[in-house]
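re the bet — no i am not wrong, look at it urself. input seq straight from the record:
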Amino acid sequence: MTQRLPRRTVLRGLGLSGICVGLPILDAMLDGNGALVSRAGAATQVPLNFLTFFMPCGTNAPEFWPTGEGENYTMSRCLQPLAHLKNEFAILQRLYKEEAGRNQDIDNDAHVRGHASFATGGSLSSEQAVEFPSADQIAAQALGGDTKFRSLPVALTGVRSPANQGDHISWSSKDTYVPADNDPLVLFNRVFGDPSGIADPNRPLAKYKKSIFDYLRSDITDLNARVGTHDRVKLDQFLSSIRDVEKQLEPTRFQVSCEAPTGIDPRLGGPAPSSDRGTGAYSNERAQLLIWLQVTAVACGLTRFGSFMLASRSNKRQFNWLGIPNAEDGHHGISHDTSPQGLEQQSLIVTDEIKQFAYMLDLMQGIQQGDRSLLYNSIVFFAHEHGHGADHDFSNTPVILAGRAGGQLKTNQHVVFNNATPYSNVFLNIFGWLGMNVASFGVNGKNPLPRISA
């Protein structure tokens, strides 16, 4: 007979306090109305999650924007990787990120200010700080205190310096950035390690000589005996996906040595070396490992808030796998090439980056939470650093809102706003959907956007 399980049910490693695997929402965790069951037996609605997804260097691609408006629009070339998810997002055009032009006397680099204004509602306050905390952190501070991670910022690439605003998009205050995890192995250890979120330096998961599932078998057997057939299938699929990721990390996980590792594919684990801009530490394979781990943390209730940075301008990411030869300044340099070849290369790059965003949404769409999906119960804010890359234009910064926000976001539409509609207004919609009473955001966010609420 199926037993009711509280949402906080976890799998723990036998005799190893360093392993703790959270679970996605199972049917056994829901009452007859689809609400979560707590340890005290009370039922609560499934809470909404809020993630941000950042892409650098703008589009500079003539094939980016759809044609047509409202529900009757045609997906563009660059957005084709999202075509199968059309019912799960809204495309917002002509949002003006005016705040990115502030304080040019502090730093005249439009890319640095483009990063700093991504989700803060402001720009720079000094060479090492922004004017306001970012939206993801405002929400996390208000609503994220009962999870393992208040928030979980993740980035594919490294940073130039610990305090450079141009390499951070998540800020807990105007003076304090929130470091992003950029090593899949470290993030794996954090997500499936000690509930405190602090790795035990004496017993990191990387030093276990077996799969973590060798230590979880007893707990898995016990849980299977307590849930129904549908939950057992879901649990098996979930654990299999964890094992698949673990296998990809094994070359590093079994390398137990005080010496520098050799012969390890840098896509899989270890810090991203600054000298590797191409298919290694900056590859899509590594990006997808990080995205999978972040989405899994959200699905397992370990956090409700996070940010994902696919790259910063300073990373100078190369795209060899697209047949694009290495450029001196990587993606940044290509974004300023307005020749037919440069525009074509930029279109290929943007399309490839959109594929990674689609990968995140596909993962979230495939995780069921009762009769809904994780994506339905989430808000995912996607934006470029600026609009047209070649001239650092902020007057038409591309924004996509994905997820249904629990049914509050009107999806499957291309909304073209009036020129100079404040970009920051969209965060007031997001705060409202999360149940927060926020009257303004940054310097220009004064009113929620029309036409995007269901």
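see?? Confidence is low (pLDDT under 50) at residues 252-279. told u. also DSSP finds nine helices and 17 strands in the chain. so pay up
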